[in-house]
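Query form — protein Endosome-associated-trafficking regulator 1

QUESTION: What is the three-dimensional structure of this chain?
INPUT:
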Amino acid sequence: LKEENASLRSRIYKLQIFSESQADKMRKLEKKLEENKIKEEKEAQDLEAMVQHVEQNLQLMTKRAVKAENSATKLKQENALLQVQLKNYKTENEALRSGQSASLAVVKQNAEVALQNLLTVITNSQSSIKQLISGAESLQLVADLLKSMERISEIPEDGK
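ANSWER: The structure tokens for Endosome-associated-trafficking regulator 1 are given below.
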């Protein structure tokens, strides 16, 4: 009976050690699970912040693109007006050559002013068009980024 009792005590002792080992493993796993939850929450918050930032940038770029488009339209209208004015100056210049109008110097001066105005409008138009193209490229980049973010959010949880 003493041997059996000693054997049972030994077995109980081993089971207690095993139980403590299992409990320790359980505590470690619970701690790791909690750390993973915190990490995932932080990643979700970071992702949400990034999405909001991208949305703000998209809105800003959209406003810029609209502004550039309006500017380009205005410059095109101004360009057309100056071309008409240049045509009138050329007509006047031809009339002066045939002796029907004021002095040749005034016509040359008017043509030079018209030419300078036309060159200024063309330069401004080119700059606005470049800005509009740059804005469109930026919008495309943001759209591609949002698509890739959408793909990231569609990855199943089993795929970790």
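ADDITIONAL NOTE: The first helix runs from residue 2 to 97.
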